[in-house]
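Researcher: I'm comparing several assemblies side by side, and this is the next one on my list. It has 423 residues spread over two chains. Same procedure as the others: predict the full complex and return the structure.
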Amino acid sequence: MVIDPRILREAPDRVRAAQTRRGLSADVVDAAVAADERRRATIAEFERLRAEQKSLGKQIPKAQGDEKQELLARTKTLSGEVKAAEAAQSEAEAAYRDLVMSIPNVASEDAPAGGEDDFVVLEHVGEPRQFDFEPRDHVELGRMLGAIDIDRGAKVSGARFYYLTGVGADLELALVNLAMEQARSAGFTPVIPPALVRPRAMDGTGFLGQAADDVYRIEGEELYLVGTSEVPLAAYHSDEILDGSSLPRRYAAFSPCYRKEAGSYGKDTTGIIRVHWFDKVEMFSYTTVEESYAEHQRLLAWEKEFLTKLGLAFRVIDVAAGDLGLSAERKFDCEAWIPTQGKYRELTSTSNCTDFQARRLDIRGRFPEGTRHLATLNGTLCAMTRTIVALLETHQQADGSVVVPEALRPHLQGREVLEPVAK
RNA sequence: GGAGGUGUCGCCUAGUCCGGUCUAUGGCGCCCGCCUGCUAAGCGGGUUGAGGGCAAAACCCUCUCGCGGGUUCAAAUCCCGCCACCUCCGCCA
């Protein structure tokens, strides 16, 4: 239901190895294999009884007198047995499901083994800027430009909230437009999706497992606030069979993202690096599993293109197996250089979820050979807050003004420099 | 929020009152073949999806009439809950 049951049955060693490379126990694999056997046994038993019930049931309307009474007596007891067998089957099915749903996607053999710190740097793009003055951080620049109002964000909504005002708001709109423009010309369909979704969409994309702590739930409703538009975009085609010739299908969504940031106390406590809400333009592709690896590279290339247009220095990392999350088989992050932190911080992330989410959401393609689950991939094109942080800090000048990268100017009324506002 | 209605295998549709003969009707579209100077028309056949048995195929079986329960020997059909859509009223950007 989550990983391919066939792989589990026929190549459990592959799954065990992948678990190990994620730093997880492989015991669940053996438990799932056993549960699968039990499941199939109960199915066979139920189907045997049910077939008998059906064939007897057909004779009843034709039978008369004693013969009919006898048939009714037999089917009555059979009815109970069928019910019991059905209950046993759904129980075994549920047990199997629970186990198999808890197994993460089989990590790519190319993904580095290990945890969060075991990533591999694939490349560096651009040089971190050298300053001949003391650079200001984005909080101060945001205040000087009248672009980011953190104090009032906290007053109104609490910690990790902010207002974008003036050129800050302009900047977000410009980034959205630039991102959408690029996506559109790459063949993406622009989408503005719902940010509140039902449990199915959340669970189907793998966000209700260990990640559930980070998700906002609506009190008294069966609705969740999405942490990324990957959720409504993946669920968009749930329970559908897409024409194979229509692939790849590419969507670019603009939506807010909500994250509780549970367990991140003390991390990034100032500024807008880590916030409970931000807006994002997200790329999403549906394609075949075979094509997904090349599509993943394309998503990465589009992310790099966008960051390059903004004049940011960044590196690309190959995220380690243990840090892939539930759904991804491989993940690349682009991390931009943040001058006042002296380090690279994640700005974008692209994941190949192969057919993991498609199995949970039942998204299939129709091909000449039959129907198959598709692959889903997602990639950040522009996460507003962190991009604004990198932009302001990277392109600042000694007087607190900020040079606008050329690509952004057409979307900022032609402005070349953002000037501090008089206080 | 209130009242009423609808949901059938791609689309449309018969069947639901009165449970068994539904192994779900017919049309459109699509696929294969026949026929035909070409095309169209006509003729014949096929066309939901999932799961189990199997190394696989053939084949057999089970499930699938919005979803989930219940009643019954037996449910598309009767009962309950949920979901979606439509109409009207109220409210509202």
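Model: For your comparison table: The radius of gyration of chain A is 27 Å.
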